[in-house]
Input
Amino acid sequence: MQMPHNALKRALAAGETRIGLFLGLADGYAAEIVAGAGFDWLLVDGEHGPNDLRTVLDQFQSLAAWPVEVLVRTPDHDPARIKQLLDIGVQSLLVPMVESGEQARALVRAMCYPPAGVRGVGTALARAAHWGGVDGYLQRADAEMCLIVQVESRAGLEALDEILAVEGVDAVFIGPSDLAASLGHLGNSAHPEVVAAVEQAIARIAAAGKTPGIFCTDPALARRYRDLGARFIAVGADTLLLRKAAAGLAQAFRAEG
Ligand code: 3PY
Ligand code: MG
Output
């Protein structure tokens, strides 16, 4: 079997724009509903969504049949958890709250086998290697890993240059909600100070030759961030879509009394 190719990593490296959706419903059946909607990528959210290793696996198995890139957001920086995700076949990770070059380097190491990193070797038990069936998995795996780090705090912004200098970081994703909180505007990521900080960060990331990413559910603002250079753009979440559509439908009939 051939090593699975990471199309998302290649597209971002080529400067292409990739639009995606966060998945918070934590269910393979729900993931299938949006699999063919037309997004370039879907992100299984293990930070705020109620996911564990088995629900991530369930969603990856459901989505494997679809021509969509799938990635996972980890809850933290734990290299043991990262190892488990890579072993079930996750190739692209979004990692929250990165605040130093050292943290970014540790994440790169967690995603690579020795000598470049510290990823443990267990291909006989790993779906990623088709349980030993992928030719040259150990030699080829590191090159297919895609690391997107989140900068979403004042400390992260202060460390942005050192984070951008870390080889192995494919993209830097700004989290406006946590950034707003960190800048003293909890719950208001549209505050002018937050928007200005996001815009400056996008420009700095692009100037460093890395891919800027952003979460933005306001289509007009998301387009503005894209025009400023954002290339990995989350434009919504399945949870929000379901809630909005459900509330809208109920409201339409309630209004008729
Ligand atoms: C944030 O806005 O804080 C994020 O992490 C993006 O989802
Ligand atoms: Mg966040």
Summary: The longest helix spans residues 238-254.
